[in-house]
Amino acid sequence: MTQHDGGWSQDKDTELVTLEQLYEQLNTMHTAGVAQEHAQIHALQAIESERRIVEDALRDLDMEEDNGTQEYVVRPIDEASKYAVPHLSHEQIQAIPLLRTHAEERRRMRALLSTPPWSARDIECLQTSVQNESLRQNTLYGTPEAKDWSRISVQVPYHTPRDCRTRWTMTQRPGINHARWSTAEKKQLLAYVDAVSIPSWEEAAAKLGTGRTGYQALEMYQRSAKRQVEWTPELDKALLQAARAVGPDWKTIAQKLGYPVSCAFQCHQRHNKLKSSAMVLGRWSPEEDAALRAAVAQFGCDWKRIEIHVAGRTGQQCRERWVGRLANIPEGKKKAARRTWTKEEDDRLRASMEKCQSWVEVAAQVGGRTDKMVRERWLLLKRRDEAQHAST
User: Fold this and answer.
1) Residue 317: which of 303, 302, 331 has the closest Cα?
2) Which residues are CB-contacts of 82 (< 8 A; sequence separation ≥ 6)?
3) Topology, domain 113-172
4) Contact (Cβ atoms closer than 8 angstroms) between residue 225 and residue 189
5) 331 three-state secondary structure
């Protein structure tokens, strides 16, 4: 059938029907694809839900097996959790390199990035696992004290062997005293620390005999039992005198002031504060230069000792003053020699530039010149050489 005057032919009608059928098929395929996508999402959620249930069930079974109990509880899988995806056994997962490697990397990275907090369930698993491991070691080897922390950590989710060992040793081990510290314990701890130069916190805890750990002893000493020095003007003066007499030996200084060696750090801090409050900036006076020369002659370049004998100046200031100026100026002279450079000095300067690492070393090789003077002279000689080379 054919229509004239611009009408559709039979071929056109057939083509239109075909296109409509194709469009309906595409819509049907799209709807089926969306439904399949939703089904896959639900299947993945069901897999994750069942995986968690299986992990909990396996952990409970392991705990019951170690305890010798034969009554196992198997949790039924909810009907809504069923899915039409084939289940992979543990052996099948281990046989797939990509899955096995990914799981190992995730566990290793989780252990490296952070230590997860200990929940009540984790602590319960740790205690039960340690008891079972002690029983196993005693049965096999007769040594209940020995423990395989790698084996223990398998039953404690998300905690490494080192994490389990630290938690057990520092917190969960039987016999640890978690009660409030008594006044007698604090006094006994302080007496022990005052009597030794370098305290051993494990020994301190053992001497207490109250079930404390070395970490608990250290924590208590740092928090509340550490003796505090009450500084007075008279004590500040005695501190400065003791520092001038013995140098930066703060343990000896603390003992000279009548305090235990544990107060050495407080003495050091107080001395730094006194120096900072009296620190002088700007030009050096002749008296300061004389004190610096005398200190260098006595102590060499030990700037920590030198700063104690040069009032108002820090060790860094003393070093910069000595290296930058006084070391190259003879005693009794107020400034370095301002004389014309000789050919011999220029030759020594050129030779020193090849083997010295700093301007201070160059000045020492030239003699009678400061590091600033030799640097300026070298730049001048360099410009002259370049100009002479350009003219030839």
Assistant:
1) 303
2) 46
3) Arc Repressor Mutant, subunit A (1.10.10)
4) yes
5) coil
Distances (CA, A) of 311 to 257, 284, 295: 21, 11, 11
Largest distance between two CA atoms of the chain: 129
pLDDT value of residue 75? 45
363-372, long-range: CB < 8 A, 24+ apart: 363/327, 363/328, 364/327, 364/328, 368/328, 368/336, 368/337, 369/328, 369/336, 369/337, 369/345, 370/324, 370/325, 370/328, 370/329, 370/336, 371/323, 371/324, 371/328, 372/324
Q: What span, in angstroms and rounded, lies between the C-alpha atoms of 171 and 150?
A: 19
Paired with 9 in beta bridges are 2
User: Which tokens go with 104?
Assistant: 């190992």
Report pLDDT digits (tens) over 80-108: 444 444 455 556 656 666 666 666 666 66
C-alpha angle 301/303/306, rounded to 5°? 100
- In 3D, which of 309, 318, 315, 375 has the Cα closest to residue 341? 375
Q: Where are the domains of the chain?
A: 113-172, 183-225, 233-328, 343-390
Give 11's contacts (C-beta < 8 A, 6+ positions apart): none
Q: What residue type is assigned to position 311 of the chain? A: A
Per-residue pLDDT of 216-269, as tens digits, reads: 888 888 776 567 788 888 998 898 888 888 888 888 888 888 887 778 888 988
Q: What is the pTM of this model?
A: 0.35
CB-count exposure of residue 324 (10 Å: 0-12, 13-18, 19+)? middle
Averaged pLDDT for residues 63-87: 46
Reduced to 3 states (helix: H, G, I; strand: E, B; else coil), residue 197 is coil
150, 161 contact by CB (below 8 A): yes
H/E element, 158: none
Q: Who's near 84: CB < 8 A, 6+ residues apart?
A: 43
